[in-house]
């Protein structure tokens, strides 16, 4: 087991930008660092539980006892514990960012993808067939493929995503893990099936191989908890990026949070809302990003997954986090 | 069209009880009244749109151009506009209150009903069959029947609900509309099927006819927007009733809000979260109750329903409400 | 294990009635008796395998090692082996006879029930919901309830069925097993759900409790293999009863055979057609009735069921029967 | 409208091969020709009804008023009426022949595809997902792709099929319609999705593009009713080819007939069995091939399709055929 101790970093947030009110009733920076220490202690028994995603060799090799958690506050402070600066595969967490980038270009994606929970596992074709090739929401694989296809109208979607993530996190080193990408590409038959199926309904603008390539590279980006939390801060700031410019309007940003809450954790969205009470998006790499609107973005990582594909220790840590801070949205 | 003008009432809230912080950045009482006037104006074109529920004669007779809206603040002020004091059939809004009453007795109901969005229309048997008689959540009909069956362990569920609603609203006149109840009972074959189906899986404790009778009477209670908003205030106060006593613990109350958000508006929960951004529960009588945690409970009523069974003007009014106040939870 | 030896009986067939041509290339009567002996030997290892239906106590008590088989030829000869004269619960085999009785009154039942295989287990509500309360075929429970409801227009359906079976088999002792019927009635919640669900779509003419009572009594009739085979001979004779009168026209009789082939063995109809190659209908009592058009009706009984609800030894015996005689319809 | 008159041809059948007994009670050759004339008259009002398949331009161009029918008797006589010698696109009728060729190599295909009716439309992914990538039967598209993949172990499946069809029909001119094949290949996204989906479950041995190419060419073969009827005679002769050699054992041949009966006409198999009473397989080119075991193979063609994808006039003609001859298998 690694030595898990919390630390705090700070990065620039342009206060000239209008940020939302903050009326913290629990945590000051120093307290958040202590809080993360306590959470890491509390969830220690959960770390290593569950199963590491093993559908591709590159993911299966990750050490199951890893655990990291980072909180980025809207004013720029970042706190972390454990492996919070160690990169891991973001996988489906990337879907939040590509959706935001697509919406920053306009609303057209909503004509091609819904906003309802799927009720079925995350890569189901059943729903697609019942609803004529329109995916239920942008966070199931089919929906994310549509979002990538939409983004691709403006150039390579994975490149656009990388540029965004590097800028928000301030880390130019963020990159696609080429081994993971190659491994994913070699195990993409189901996503390929989803894409061709949507193509058969006319819901794919670009050639499937090209969309799939961009999609696979997005999912294969490696980032740390700190990187993810920083990059997601625009959702806590209702659309305002770290440089103070606006990526999305207030409504669009809130709406991404709403979609995260209802659809962000596969078919466990209700349970996650019930237990954690925050908008969140998980990935099979073991990461979960969650938003406390007006306050902070949180990212937690631990590779062991539950039966629905969400990090066991990650959900537990977020549960502790909202219990201890009282920061659920409900 | 009726003359729609806003008014404000006030009812007692025992300030000895610990209420949540309120840091309203928009509305003072006088402003809320003006706000409701504006909303009524804004949604006027929507009033009368959609189809009045017609599966029973007693509901089909309601005048489609009715519109009322009430906001009850956590400190006891109640504001309203239009038909905000006119009773209507609460129908599925009752499910929120029976769930709260059941949870006030303990957690056992969660062993018999899930917390996930259904993905299917509100009275679907498909899901029940796929999941062995365990309804997806307490707000679809099957789940609400289980909640009623659970409540029935402590006496007649409809009587318990009436007692609660009378006390919270301060209106002893609240009653079951016997004509609606008789009409519902005569058109309850699908709910009867749901109940017997769950019984076949061992998920019904009491005889189906008895549970169904209690369920039908709950749904047939007539209340005004003001009554509903007052009665739902405990959800805005995280469990604290109007007399300052605690109905539910903080977590349980927040969790009801979470279930409302993910499951409260049939298979349009994602759309409602996206557009309104508040926990809400609708009924085919045309009512919707929504919660702004820490601030207020809102009830809006207009009988015309959209294709998914939610009030057209009601959703529009709540959309305006959160847009104008900025009070979405996201 | 019982002593299983074959015997041959003979009962009257009015040769004045026009029977179909018979060009047997295998069996003469004496040979059929020998054939049944051989089949009983061949399938001995299968007898007792599988699980006895245990959803009601009265069925669960049957001895799993029972095996009987009877062949009734169109000219009136009946041959049998093992427990071929021992009554057992006909259960769903009754559906063939009620369908025939309903069709003898006219075609109106086809407006209320389809003729396609269900693709789902035999008492599924999923399909009913997808197809607006019209059951897929008359041999799933929902469809058989509709047939009973249709028959009930002319009086009690179970009484009509009993009268028919007594006359065809020549055995006045045939009766409802009251213990089984009481037990079924106490475990009928799922069928009750099916019936109320269809009622909610307007596809039930009589009150559900009455239809259910008649349905339960039909299923609870006890008959021997010999009784069933004799009673089913009209299907081998394309509509002609044992007294030479015509129950059904040529087309109607053939069509019942077609429905048996495609829908008669729950969701194993394709496998049964593939392996046995005859129209057949099974029951969870362990019986299967099969038809060789123009030649004979066969009934086999052994209580152990496979995962799809068909008698393990029964299917094996029919498989041997068609292999040895070459009498598949294909 | 074309001049529809019947004719009779004769082609060699090696009588040295053991053919099944024939005890025709209706038709002699001369009568069959007259019968076809009568059927063509009787179904004239149906010709041109329904919709021509229009998912690819090459199919959409076919003249809707075409009608042809051919009967090939087990002794080699072939009778026809109308456009019975005019080639059309065989489409899914090819699935019968590829299944037979795969089974002539052994039983291994049955480990990869089921034998049950699908209950869903012919290219459904729903079922595939519910059953882990194992198609329900070899006559839905997914199942036929598996059969092609299986055949491909021994060389190009379309080439093998062409060789077989040329030899059985005696017509070396039979070929792939390259325009149809190109058009199909350009509209194959759904089949591509099916194939990749099965690949994701490990149920595809060869690369999807290669299997799809062979599959598309099979479907694009053009043959006349006479060609198809002659080529299908081995199914009427329980496995014996036109040169007297055996393609399949008795059981395997009968079993193909059984699968045709339960699964051969998309989700109308029950209706087809009920109405026609013969094993049959339809294609969206408007052809249907049907088998009277021991007697003859029939092929009918008319391009107008019903809602389930079966030729309107074709089904009507087969219905008349079995009604007039009494040759249903039931």
- Rounded to the nearest angstrom, the radius of gyration of chain A is 18 Å
The CATH homologous superfamily of chain A is named DD-peptidase/beta-lactamase superfamily
* Structural class by SSE content of chain A: alpha+beta
Major protein interface: C-D, 38 and 39 residues
Q: Based on Cα principal axes, name the global outline of chain A.
A: globular
Q: What is the tally of beta strands of chain A?
A: 9
- Reported by name, the CATH topology of chain A is Beta-lactamase
Which consecutive residue ranges of chain A, at least 5 long each, have pLDDT under 50? Answer: 14-27
Averaging pLDDT over every residue of chain A, what do you get?
90
Number of helices of chain A: 14
Subunit structure (chains A, B, C, D): Homotetramer.
Protein name (chains A, B, C, D): Glutaminase
InterPro entries (chains A, B, C, D): Beta-lactam/transpept-like, Glutaminase
Pfam family, one (chains A, B, C, D): Glutaminase
Account of the protein in words:
- Chains A, B, C, D: Substrate binds at residues 92, 141, 184, 191, 215, 266, 284.
- Chains A, B, C, D: Homotetramer.
- Chains A, B, C, D: Pfam families: Glutaminase (PF04960).
- Chains A, B, C, D: It catalyses: L-glutamine + H2O = L-glutamate + NH4(+).
- Chains A, B, C, D: Belongs to the glutaminase family.
- The structure is a homotetramer of 330-residue chains.
- The first copy, chain A, contains 14 helices and 9 strands.
- Helix content of chain A is 41%, strand content 12%.
- Chain A has a single domain, classed as DD-peptidase/beta-lactamase superfamily (Beta-lactamase, 3-Layer(aba) Sandwich), CATH 3.40.710.10.
- Chain A has helices at residues 29-42, 57-60, 94-104, 126-130, 141-151, 157-169, 178-185, 189-200, 208-219, 225-231, 233-236, 250-263, 269-275, 312-325; strands at 6-10, 68-73, 77-82, 88-89, 175-176, 221-223, 280-282, 287-292, 296-301.
- In chain A, the strands form 2 sheets. Chain A has a 6-stranded antiparallel beta sheet with strand order 1-3-2-9-8-7. Chain A has a 3-stranded antiparallel beta sheet with strand order 4-6-5.
- Chain A is an alpha+beta fold.
- At the B-C interface, helix 4 and helix 8 of B face helix 4 and helix 8 of C.
